[in-house]
Amino acid sequence: MLSLLSSLAVTWLAGQALAIDLTVSKTGGNSSSELLYGIMFEDINNSGDGGIHGQLLRNNGFQGTDPGLTGYAAVGDVTITQDTSNPVSSAITSSLKVAVPSGATGFVGFANEGYEGVPVLAQTYANYFWMKGDYSGTINLRLVGNSSGTVFADHNITVASNASAFSYYDTSFTSTASTDGNNVWQLRFDASKVAGSSLNFGLVQLFPPTYNSRYNGLRDDVASFLAEVKPSFLRFPGGNNIEGASPSDRWKWNETIGPVVDRPGREGDWTYPNTDALGLDEYLYWCEDMGMEPVLAVWSGLSLGGGIVSGDALDPYVDDILNELEYVLGSTDTTYGALRAKNGRTEPWDVSYIEVGNEDNLNSGCGTYASRFTQIYDAVHAAYPDLTIIASTTSTSCLPSTIPSGVITDIHHYLTPDEFIEEFNEWDNWSRDWPILVGEYASTTGNDGSTTYWSYMQGSCAEAVYMIGMERNSDIVKMASFAPLLEHFDMAEWSPDLFGLDASPDSITGSTSYYVQKMFSTNRGSTILPVNTTADFGPVYWVASADSDTYYVKLANYGSSTQNVTVNIEGTTSGSLELLSGGEAVSNYPHDVSITTATSSVAGSSSFTVDLPAWGVAVLAVS
Ligand code: AHR
């Protein structure tokens, strides 16, 4: 009889949602890391060049491996070539030669199509270029629809250049808006003055308004969209992109500083050239402008192509790390601190976290990581004892047998939604003496094994469940960052990413995971509070926190039916409920954002009821 009743009850339960009653304790609990929610950035998917960095023209320094004329086209009856015999600088080793036939007339020149189009909006553009050759007269700069021929901006400047050296020009102009991204930038000149000869142009740069109006800064629209997440830290510059295909191809800090014309760029690890115009100082301005703690990764001796440098051979690279840190942290009395000042930054940067490498458990790095890490740790710690040093793996087999006190270890999770649910309690029983950075995580594969092209609600909800698990344990989980951050939709090597864009207006698109990150990051308490309930975790997961008199309860429903959740917090009366929901498989797409957070006011007398839709994520904030 008993078993019949139980089986009837189970049948009834399967079809009906049970009410879940949560009572938040106002005492007890654990402290929460104020850095918990941050971001990870590397140039992948043209997220830097062509993404968040402001410079819009492609291949402007002919960098990387064999770039050819990528991005360029002739305008009028001219011949354009990459000219290595007329380098702009010792770093920018080519320029664009524009040869004009005898007898030519009218305005001719060249176009640059940017990164699969130039975003043309009604705004002011800054435009810089170098030019060499005998020419006195008008240079005409335009933004033009590629197929329509519509001219959105048309600006003349007068120049006097000569054949003996490159001259630099700097101007700005306003534009009207294009309806699409199929636009080019053009530079034209009077052909009759050059007929039978040629001019050379180099390092053409076009910037829309930049974030915080920085010179050589980030795109204001892109950075502002990201700033809405209120990230606490920036882990950079990789990711794989710090590693290099070989040791000599690694990200080299000293080649990413100073005037852009002195930066050679490199072939990045994601199969395209990096201009490095977004360099070390630009990353640190980004941190400062967004109020983020920098987490600066340094090269650990591991390159992606399998070249591993260890033992005595690593010594020069350890010295290079110390030089980098002197550049970042040293007074202007030091060699590299003085160089930083020469590059425009007198004050040392506020950097407290250094990560030694990236994923040194992979690419045959495990066997030597303990010694490489120790070598770098010892040198950095001796010179800068206040820095917190991060190891790039949690794998004990790759780490020194005794991890120095205070060292944080980094773990990366690219999982299916169900796997994130299985990892919900990953940190519950972790040693409280062992702090963690979850430096990369995202749901990248469906439960059926299919590759996820772009985040959808089930995966984003699963990430939210995992984040709840991290937040519950944020006494030891110090920092966590979704990865990768950004993709250019037409130039992506890795999807899904947190948000994306292309050259068309209003293309900046937050994935469903972007909205989860934003909800969680913008609603943080400083103390994680106990929650009393008779309910078990699953399908609903929760975490409660408080900051002075505001209480936050984060909820995620990893299930296919609506769940009714009552939250009791003694003495609270009102606040807001942010809700993100949509069908299990629903995504946001470029120009088709169907899922964003909905915020409503709530009122109650110490008690609030939430109908949490299937695959829904919610944050209740009350006081
Ligand atoms: O986020 C994409 C890549 O995934 C990172 O570059 C690397 O660290 C990881 O394997």
UniProtKB/TrEMBL annotation:
Pathway: Glycan metabolism; L-arabinan degradation
Ribonucleoprotein keyword on record: no
Record field: transmembrane: none
Superkingdom, natural source: Eukaryota
Catalysed transformations (reactions): Hydrolysis of terminal non-reducing alpha-L-arabinofuranoside residues in alpha-L-arabinosides
Major enzyme class: hydrolase
GO biological process: arabinan catabolic process; L-arabinose metabolic process
Record InterPro entries: Alpha-L-AF_C, ASD1_cat, GH, Glycosyl_Hydrolase_51
Domain Alpha-L-arabinofuranosidase C-terminal: 439-616
GO MF annotation terms: alpha-L-arabinofuranosidase activity
E.C. code: 3.2.1.55
Signal peptide: 1-19
Glycoprotein listed as a keyword: yes
Keyword terms: Glycoprotein, Glycosidase, Hydrolase, Signal
Family recorded in the similarity comment: Belongs to the glycosyl hydrolase 51 family.
This protein's name: non-reducing end alpha-L-arabinofuranosidase
Organism: Aspergillus ellipticus CBS 707.79
